[in-house]
Specification:
14 strands; 5 helices; single chain; about 280 residues; 6-stranded antiparallel barrel
């Protein structure tokens, strides 16, 4: 006290005054409290491109990372077996037609009825084979970005019906997935706004708005996280692609700076003493 209020010791007085000023500053002044979370950009709709018929891959003109337009061929299957099968049924139909004409000329109604049924069967088989032949060329359903899939190293490989070859997402509709720590999830509400900074372009901040909070947590790296979905506000940046990652900050409210900077430490201390208190 003598050094603080007595003569000399200017450095001590200056340091004590500065510490008191900073303490009062943090206790009085308020700031923006924001919840920070790792974020990932996804397509609002992500469609799986599966194999329509069993066969062998003969051509693959697209791979993950490519931008394709609606109708662009993603991959092609070998159609030789299907074409041979179609030729067989075309021949069967011609034969049945010839026999049907002969039976009709001879007024043999029983045989004509059987042959008419065989002709219809052949026509149905040909229509089915035509549909399968058309499906051997798998095309993009809409203008999209290929999220996953690469068949360039699998030419000639057999594939089964239903196998997923590609996943595509549209280029004009995105959502942001935020992994919010369970310590902060109580403060996050629907319709809150925030900003997103992507790793590839941290200087371009994107506006986001919370749309959905999933009431289930997942454990990663020793922490529990809740999945929070947000939508992008404003004009979509042309460089945006599904799979991009970054950091999102959700605006909560105004709180004391001292609380904002120390609440994580006080939360940890509270839980520590609670777990050890008899």
């Amino acid at each position: 006290m003598e050094k603080l209020f007595g003569p000399r010791h200017a450095g001590l007085k200056l340091g004590a005054s500065l510490a008191l000023f900073l303490l009062l500053f943090f206790l009085i002044v308020e700031g923006d409290y924001r919840v920070t979370a790792d974020a990932r950009v996804e397509g609002t709709v992500q469609r799986s491109i599966a194999v329509p018929v069993a066969g062998y891959v003969v051509d693959a003109g697209a791979r993950a990372g490519d931008i394709v337009k609606a109708g662009d061929v993603l991959f092609t299957l070998d159609d030789r077996d299907l074409r041979l099968e179609r030729l067989k049924w075309v021949g069967q139909r011609l034969k049945s037609n010839r026999e049907y004409n002969e039976a009709t000329a001879q007024h043999n109604r029983a045989k004509a009825s059987v042959l008419a049924a065989q002709i219809e069967q052949a026509q149905a088989e040909i229509a089915l084979l035509d549909e399968q032949l058309e499906r051997t060329r798998v095309t993009a359903p809409f203008d999209s970005f290929i999220v996953s899939g690469d068949l360039s190293q699998s030419l000639g490989a057999p594939v089964e019906r239903g196998d997923v070859m590609f996943e595509v997402a549209p280029l004009n509709s995105y959502r942001v997935i935020l992994k919010v720590d369970e310590r902060d999830i109580d403060d996050v509400k629907v319709d809150q706004t925030g900003r997103l900074a992507l790793t590839s372009a941290p200087e371009d901040l994107l506006l986001i708005k919370v749309e959905k909070i999933t009431p289930l947590s997942t454990a990663e790296e020793g922490h529990n996280f809740f999945r929070v979905e947000a939508r992008l506000e404003g004009e979509i940046a042309p460089m945006l692609r599904p799979g991009m990652e970054g950091v999102g900050k959700i605006n909560i409210d105004q709180r004391k700076l001292i609380w904002i900077w120390t609440y994580k430490i006080t939360h940890w201390l509270r839980m520590f003493f609670w777990s050890w208190w008899p």
